[in-house]
Amino acid sequence: MTSAMTLAETSFNFAYLDEDTKRMIRRAILKAVAVPGYQVPFASREMPMPYGWGTGGVQVTAACLMPEDVLKVIDQGADDTTNAVSIRKFFQRTSGVAVTERTAEASVIQTRHRIPEAALTEDQILVYQVPIPEPLRFLEPRETETRKMHELEEYGLMHVKLYEDIARHGTIATAYAYPVKVEGRYVMDPSPIPKFDNPKLSGNAALQLFGAGREARIYAVPPHTQVVSLDFDDHPFVASKADHACDICGSATSYLDEVITDDKGGRMFVCSDTDYCRGGQ
Amino acid sequence: MYVAVKGGERAIDAAHAWLACERRGDPGVSELSVAQIREQLTLAVNRVMTEGALYDPDLAALAIKQARGDLIEAIFLLRAYRTTLPRFGSSVPLDTEAMEVTRRVSATFKDLPGGQVLGPTFDYTHRLLDFTLMAEGELPTAPTAPIRDEKVPHVMALLDRDGLIEAAPQGGQPIDMTRTPMEYPADRALRLQAIGRGDEGFLLGLAYSTQRGYGRTHAFVGELRIGAVTVEMEVPELGFAIEIGEIEVSECETVNQFKGSKTEPPQFTRGYGLVFGQNERKALSVSLVDRALRWEELGEDFAGAPAQDEEFVLSHCDNVQATGFLEHIKLPHYVDFQAELELIRRLRRNAHQEAAE
What chain A residue is nearest to B20 in terms of C-alpha separation? Predict the structure, then answer.
């Protein structure tokens, strides 16, 4: 087992993917950057981890990594969640790049479900893992239809959905994967980040890349791009979080996880971004 | 309490070590060899090769051993390996007429050139547990006959000569679905690639649904043939095709009733399925689903049946994609769930307030 593993490790290319595949992915990334928010089809490869577990993000990261990069991988905001550990290990093994848990030290950050609390810089790339890249998918299951809707900028269905939420619940009942419009053109799924994170998408100095492996799509929000969360004049978008401060670092502004501490209703609230929480203590 | 989410790295290493022990099972029982799996669990190996889209019985057997017999996991292992292999080019189309047939049956003609060859099949066995297999050391024998050294013409070609069946489709270089992102509508060659490596159970269910009336196509098994075929490849420097190997395949061609449409006269139509190794259920299923998906080109009505719906079938037939996405819901979703918790609490607060007013 061990000897086979060593053999496998040395026989793979830097960051696992072969150079032709990386070139194909980089072309898709360039197109995505040129047309912000547009979903670019790419010939997604089978990866040695399951579809739905970050294969899109892993392929985008593999295509971006250079030997001098410093990689950070988070899942739910934390570096130590099992899948983040697994992906970080994969790149350590296949590329040998330096890794870090510090947001500020990383040049490439792969994330699932969160945007780090700390502001990012122009020297950083944020890679999102995306399960369903199509923001219209749950309104229209057919790819052939949704592509047409994007082509024609026909987003009425989405506004009707949001309006119906308000009519029924008095508020827009979408708490995560909240749809956005990029540079006034494409409606985009920001991946399942809480809507609390949506404002950080807009005007961000970092390059934001989105990879969906199973659905074979890559899209991008280039640095300093305007990203608007869909809303109505009389029902403006509100970024919400638990109405508490972190029980560990005391931050009143970071996104919180709710942790159940006993079976009598006891609970505590802690930062979901573990690096931010450690820095604030 | 909160530290419970820490220590992911140690947990993963320990879990994998435990898994390796479970895979080995009771050390008092002798270890299963890859050769034993390849030779004695051949049909499992065939399925893994077909859906793993890689013809390599040894690696498929290794994958089955490593996956503890979970065939979808084994298929995944083979696919993940396959994707790292360089592509030199593509073979010339297989000549299945020149197949060294081990089994060949036609349900449409009692006898035909090349004959009916029953071959090694479960058909007509009585499904009674054979308790003698619990005692080891059996060495079965079977009567043999000389190989018939003749070409076995396709039943379809015989029907084609009389103009009773739609003309055979023209060739051409098909799109490689592993190198080009799927786009709809897909052509038939692309559809056959996708369902050929699709999940056997999913395809079986869809094919069965067409038989029960959800997009019925009245299929007859024109021919099912299993055997070895040579694989040839054209080498540009040589200017002709050379043999690069031999593989076993199952090929099924169905003859489907067709009463004609606005654009086509009444004639028989075709369904086609080809898979690695002996796997009759899969070859039949693929050919039935292939035929059901052809409604549009034949000018038939869309009955709204799942098996007719190309986008539905092709987007959901891949078990590596399906199982990955299904099982990813085991990953943490604290952040989204927290957002939902806040939303539900707020909605309930609003509802209570309204009720009170």
Answer: A1
- B185, B323, B350 ranked by CB distance to A50: nearest: B323
B320–A51 CB contact, under 8 Å:
yes
How far does Cα A120 stand from its chain's mean position?
14
| CA distances (Å), origin A250, targets A75, A242, A276, A277, B342 | 22, 13, 11, 9, 20
Exposure b/e, B244-270, CB count within 10 A at least 16 = b? eeebbbbbbbbbbebeeeeeeeebbbb
The 3-state DSSP class for residue A194 equals strand
Q: Which residues in chain A have Cβ-Cβ distances shorter than 8 Å to B86?
A: 18
In B, residues 50-109, which contact A (CB 8 Å cutoff)? 76, 79-80, 82-84, 86
State the burial class of residue A221 (Cβ atoms within 10 Å of its Cβ: 0-12, 13-18, 19+): buried
For residue A181, the cross-strand partners are A187, A228
Q: Which residues of chain B are within 8 Å of residue A167 when distances are taken between CB atoms?
A: none
The owner of tokens 């290990």 is A89
Q: Using DSSP, state whether B1 is helix, strand or coil.
A: coil
Interface with chain A: mutation pick from B54, B82, B84, highest number of A CBs within 10 Å: B84
* Side chain identity at residue B56, one-letter code: D
Q: What is the mean pLDDT of residues A199-214?
A: 98
Q: What tens digit of pLDDT does each residue of A78-108 get?
A: 999 999 999 999 999 999 999 999 999 999 9
Percent of residues, chain A, with pLDDT higher than 90: 90
CA–CA separation, B36 and B34 (whole Å)? 5
Contact B332/A at CB under 8 A:
yes
Inter-chain touch B184–A143, beta carbons under 8 Å: yes
Report the SS3 class of residue B159: helix
Domain ranges of chain B: 9-82, 96-122+146-317, 332-356
For A198, the token pair is: 């949506």
pLDDT of residue A8: 44
Burial class (CB in 10 A: 0-12, 13-18, 19+), B118: exposed
Q: Which residues of B touch A112 (CB under 8 A)?
A: 331
Instruction: Tell me which residues of chain B, numbers 18 to 47, contact chain A at a CB-CB cutoff of 8 Å.
Output: 20
Query: Please, which residues 181-200 of chain B have a Cβ atom closer than 8 Å to chain A?
Result: 181-185
Contact across the interface for A272 and B311, Cβ inside 8 Å: no
| Contact between chains at A50 and B324 (C-beta distance less than 8 A) | yes
Tell me the helix, strand and coil percentages in chain A, rounded to 5.
Answer: 30, 20, 50
For the stretch B120-136, pLDDT in tens is: 999 999 999 999 899 88
The whole-number pLDDT of residue A2 equals 40
Q: Please tell me the total number of residues recorded for chain A in this structure.
A: 281
ipTM: 0.88
List alpha helices for chain B, DSSP H. Answer: 8-24, 34-40, 42-52, 57-66, 71-82, 155-161, 188-196, 200-211, 280-293, 310-316, 319-327, 334-356
Banded pLDDT at B55 (limits 50, 70, 90) = very high
Query: 3-class SS at B339?
Result: helix
